[in-house]
């Protein structure tokens, strides 16, 4: 086959696919900055410690990320056959999503823009 043939390109792309268990939440109603405060606290920790941190963290994003982490753990156990005791948070990051623009009426006929930001949160686990 030719070097740039479609099937060869697909084969190479699938060979480089990351096989680690993960979970992704798209369009979370939370800004990237606020989500990153929580994600920085659990990065590199084992899953039981990370769940404990998220349980007692007062931030709104910790509730969302806690559900996402539980989903990633379930994916690791059911799809990859991994043991829960050996899992840790290898990667976790938040990417910027679309911003909803809203208008707030102000004095003297002015209008202020309110930006309701969204983000895409990804949690990747791995075994020690």
Question: Your description of this structure?
Answer:
With 128 residues, this protein is of the alpha+beta class. It has a single domain (21-127), classed as Ribosomal protein L22/L17 (Ribosomal Protein L22, Chain A, Alpha-Beta Complex), CATH 3.90.470.10. Helix content is 39%, strand content 34%. It is built from 4 helices and 3 strands. The chain has helices at residues 6-15, 32-42, 47-55, 60-79, and strands at 22-28, 87-105, 111-127. It has a 3-stranded antiparallel beta sheet with strand order 1-3-2. The longest helix has 20 residues, at 60-79. The protein starts with 5 loop residues before the first helix and ends with a strand.
**CATH top level class name:** Alpha Beta
Number of helices: 4
Mean pLDDT: 92
What is the topology, as strand order, of the major beta sheet?
A: 1-3-2
Number of domains: 1
- Return the CATH topology: Ribosomal Protein L22, Chain A
Per DSSP E runs of 2 or more residues, the count of β-strands stands at 3
User: What structural class results from the helix and strand content?
Assistant: alpha+beta
Approximately how much beta-strand content do the residues carry?
25-35%
End-to-end C-alpha gap: 40 Å
Helical content stands at 25-40%
CATH superfamily, by name, is Ribosomal protein L22/L17
> In terms of per-residue confidence, which ranges show pLDDT below 50 for 5 or more consecutive residues?
none
- The sequence of SSEs as H and E is HEHHHEE
